[in-house]
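Researcher: Here's a chain I'd like modeled. Treat it as a single chain, no partners, no ligands.
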Amino acid sequence: MNTEQFMARAFATLLVSIDLTDDDELDPDVAAALVEPVAAMARELTPEGRANLVTLIHIAAQSETDPVRQRSMLALPEEFGLLEED
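Model: Modeled as a single isolated chain. Structure tokens:
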């Protein structure tokens, strides 16, 4: 795993952990405050950068052994608006 793959996997793992945490353990407003700026930054990437990030997230998802976490990770690109065309 190279550094770029590590960073994407860490990024995706953290976001999935936030997404799957129960509302009584992490206030939804706090979760949104953590995730929304990251999503906005990801949408600022060039189309090539977004495509690369999507690929890296899919690679990270392939190494996820928990099916629930894997599904959540695979949903990240769409949830973050990375699949939208400019």
